[in-house]
Amino acid sequence: MMKAVIFDLGGVLVNYDGRSTFTEIAQLARTTLDDLFPFYQKHDHTFGTGQLSGQDYYQKLNEAFGFSADYETFVTTFCRTQQRNEAALAFACDLQARPNVRVGIISNTNQVHAGWLRENLPEFKQFHSVILSNEVGLLKPDSAIYELSLKQLEVPPAQALFVDDAEENLVGGTAVNLHTLHHTNWQHTRPAIEQWLKS
After folding, report:
1. How do beta strands 3-7 and 101-107 pair?
2. 3-state class of 199 per DSSP?
3. Pair 156, 3: CB distance under 8 Å
4. Is the bond preceding 141 in cis, omega lying within 30 degrees of 0?
5. What is the model's pLDDT at position 188?
6. Which of 8, 86, 141, 167: disulfide with 12, CB 3.0–4.6 Å?
7. Which of 38, 193, 36, 16 minimizes the C-alpha distance to 116?
């Protein structure tokens, strides 16, 4: 029977340091991380669901704080802490190559990060389903985003495992009857996935 493993990206298949990213953005905006945080909270949902483009977000930063950099510098800074996790990506590709396994992605992201991801992760072309929140207008833990993934993967929830480093997103997966796995490190996650596939 076909099984599916659905991965989050940031903190799982891709290394990402959000605090460092927004610390650098705060420096460009000539403000503090504490002062920038309410702006982030205000616009996180619209940015993450694609209602705000990267240019829109940059413009709103300019309006709120003034900015010491052009848009391209903002994009470079905003993406600087995203890095490929080579071993994790290789494992995901190995899973996708198995005859009875499909690999999916569900990531809460935005147009700026999504551009970097699609440019730097050619593995996306190998995976059976890749869902980026800004492209579908949905964010985890909304049940609809998991249901969309299952539809694309063509597996029932009982045959799918969702792997994420954020517990609130795991709760969203459990709500639609997905098996879930809290990722903390690959020394635990990889054997746990293998064990689930054998079950």
Report:
1. parallel
2. coil
3. no
4. yes
5. 98
6. 8
7. 16
| Six-digit token string for 184 | 């903390």
Residues 9 and 106 in one domain: yes
Cβ atoms of residues 85 and 93 within 8 Å: no
Both structure tokens of 55: 């240019």
Nearest to 188 by CA among 82, 93, 88: 88
Same domain, 166 and 100: yes
Q: How many residues does the chain have?
A: 199
Q: Which residue has the tokens 């190998």?
A: 126
pLDDT tens digits, residue range 47-70? 999 999 999 999 999 999 988 899
pTM of structure: 0.97
**Domain co-membership, 90 together with 134:** yes
Structural domain of 112? 3-15+84-198
3-class secondary-structure state, position 80: coil
CB half-sphere exposure, 153, CA atoms < 13 A: 33
* 117 and 194 belong to one structural domain: yes
- List of the chain residues with pLDDT < 70: none
Report pLDDT digits (tens) over 18-33. Answer: 999 999 999 999 999 9
Distance linking the first and last C-alpha atoms of the chain: 11
Distance CA 197, CA 96 (A): 12
